């Protein structure tokens, strides 16, 4: 068996892949109206209850209880081309279906208690991914098996928020986030499992926000989300080799009880301006603190010898293992959009977003991050005085990236990656 890096590079890939088509492994899919306008102004427009995902203070803009239910399907296309190593002597070829589609639901409810206080409850996702590059290693005697395989990550944010209106101009809000995370990862060298992760767990964070209503047609919003470190527990195993005194180089199975996965804080400002009875413009600037995402740590591990005369001997307990360093950088996204009311029943919207990538000096085959451009459109149809159906669509185009990543098995691996996606979203909103 070949020597596998003790840093368990593949484990870190499990919870940090970027095929969600936003910076790092962040999702932008919280509502159909948001997708239709590239999330421009979403922290302050407050045309339905989904504003709760961006700014709890905006609940103060509601004078009736409001409900929004939605589904988004993200069809992600990831091309991994010309994967080669050993100075180009071994070429693993290309794969054009490494990404996977995701159905992402959401739920929002806002209840004004009185003219000062409102309460809100929501369930949505800010982070997630899904990729499979295992076909690149099939029928290969030598391959960077520690970099190739199946990855699936899901998070759900359960939010409870409250807002308070000080006066006609100024409102504030705060919320608590309970974030559930679930991850699945496999890395195999033929029939030999190198890494097998099946874990889930919880983390707790929060959000603060404020709105400033300059007048009836112009308002600004600001929010800061404190994202937690999610501790996931479950089956996490990895194979490595280690020089054991008196035994020499031995295969070692590492079993960990939990992994600590830090998520990035999110700060945003947004504006909305109703220019006339028909047309409004809106915009957002969002800063995500991916620079704090340095590594994933495995905790409470045991190390057991595999094979040889000492097979099954436990050589260490309570192992804490820092995983691969990422050295990501903080990122910005900027979006601008417009909304046009055709008549009392029909509204259309469109938007553009530029989203910066987060990978800095350390690139990754499993994290082909890059700057992205979003081109979006949407529409709303008023079913009745109380209910609305919203549709949104977005085309996301990432840049082509040439990268080199180090494999503990194969050494430097070269590849070219490119990602794109289509988002399709629908949403039903009701005011009581």
Explain this structure to me?
- The protein has 432 residues and is mainly β.
- The protein has one domain (9-431): Outer membrane protein transport protein (OMPP1/FadL/TodX) (Porin), CATH 2.40.160.60.
- Helix content is 3%, strand content 60%.
- The protein has 2 helices and 21 strands.
- Strands 1-3-4-6-7-8-9-12-13-16-17-18-19-21 form a 14-stranded antiparallel barrel.
- β3 and β4 form a beta hairpin.
- The longest helix is centred in the N-terminal third of the chain and has 6 residues, at 9-14.
- It is elongated and about 80 Å long.
- The relative contact order is 0.21.
- It is a multi-pass membrane protein.
- This is Transporter.
Topology (elements, then pairings):
Blueprint lengths: L8 H6 L17 H5 L29 E20 L4 E6 L6 E11 L4 E8 L3 E5 L17 E16 L4 E20 L2 E24 L2 E9 L2 E16 L3 E15 L3 E9 L4 E10 L8 E10 L7 E9 L8 E11 L4 E10 L16 E11 L4 E12 L2 E7 L3 E21 L1
Antiparallel strand pairs: 1-2, 1-3, 1-21, 3-4, 4-6, 5-6, 6-7, 7-8, 8-9, 8-10, 9-12, 10-11, 11-14, 12-13, 13-16, 14-15, 16-17, 17-18, 18-19, 19-21, 20-21
Number of helices: 2
Output the strand order for the largest sheet: 1-3-4-6-7-8-9-12-13-16-17-18-19-21
Q: Biggest sheet: strands, sense, closure?
A: 14 strands, antiparallel, barrel
| H-E string | HHEEEEEEEEEEEEEEEEEEEEE
| Backbone CA Rg | 24 Å
Q: Report the top-level CATH class.
A: Mainly Beta
Level-2 CATH architecture? Beta Barrel
Count of structural domains = 1
Overall pLDDT metric: 83
- CATH H level, superfamily name: Outer membrane protein transport protein (OMPP1/FadL/TodX)
Main location: membrane
Subcellular location: Cell outer membrane
Signal peptide: 1-22
Membrane topology: Multi-pass membrane protein
């Amino acid at each position: 068996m070949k020597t596998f890096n003790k840093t368990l590079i593949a484990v870190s890939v499990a919870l940090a892949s970027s095929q969600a088509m936003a910076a790092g492994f962040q999702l932008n899919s919280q509502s159909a109206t948001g997708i239709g306008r590239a999330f421009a102004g979403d922290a302050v427009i407050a045309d339905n209850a989904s504003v709760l995902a961006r700014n709890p203070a905006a609940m103060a803009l509601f004078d009736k209880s409001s409900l929004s239910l939605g589904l988004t399907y993200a069809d992600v296309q990831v091309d991994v081309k010309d994967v080669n190593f050993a100075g180009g002597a071994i070429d693993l070829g290309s794969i054009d279906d490494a990404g996977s589609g995701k159905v992402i639901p959401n739920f929002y409810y806002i209840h004004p208690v009185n003219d000062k206080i409102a309460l809100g409850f929501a369930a949505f996702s800010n982070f997630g991914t899904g990729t499979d590059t295992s076909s690149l290693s099939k029928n290969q005697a030598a391959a960077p098996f520690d970099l190739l395989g199946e990855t699936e990550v899901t998070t759900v944010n359960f939010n409870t928020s409250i807002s308070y209106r000080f006066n006609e101009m100024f409102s504030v809000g705060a919320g608590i986030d309970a974030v559930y995370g679930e991850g699945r990862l496999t890395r195999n060298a033929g029939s030999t499992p190198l890494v097998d992760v099946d874990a889930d767990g919880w983390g707790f964070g929060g959000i603060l926000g404020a709105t400033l209503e300059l007048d009836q047609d112009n308002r600004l919003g600001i929010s800061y989300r404190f994202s937690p470190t999610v501790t996931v527990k479950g089956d996490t195993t990895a194979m490595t080799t280690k020089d054991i005194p008196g035994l020499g180089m031995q295969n070692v199975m590492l079993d960990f009880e939990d992994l600590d996965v830090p998520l990035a804080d999110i700060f945003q400002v947004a504006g909305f301006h109703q220019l006339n009875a028909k047309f409004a413009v809106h915009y957002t600037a969002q800063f995500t603190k991916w620079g704090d995402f340095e590594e994933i740590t495995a905790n409470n591990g045991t190390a057991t010898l595999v094979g040889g005369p000492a097979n099954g001997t436990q050589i260490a307990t309570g192992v804490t293992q820092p995983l691969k360093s990422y050295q990501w950088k903080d990122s910005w996204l900027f979006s601008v959009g417009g909304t046009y009311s055709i008549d009392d029943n029909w509204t259309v919207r469109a938007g553009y977003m530029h989203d910066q990538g987060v990978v800095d000096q350390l690139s990754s085959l499993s994290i082909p991050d890059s700057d992205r451009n979003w081109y979006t459109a949407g529409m709303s149809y008023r079913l009745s005085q109380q209910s609305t159906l919203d549709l949104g669509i977005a085309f996301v185009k990432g840049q082509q990236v040439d990268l080199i990543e180090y494999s503990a098995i194969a050494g430097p691996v070269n590849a070219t990656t490119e990602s794109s996606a289509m988002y399709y979203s629908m949403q039903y909103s009701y005011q009581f």
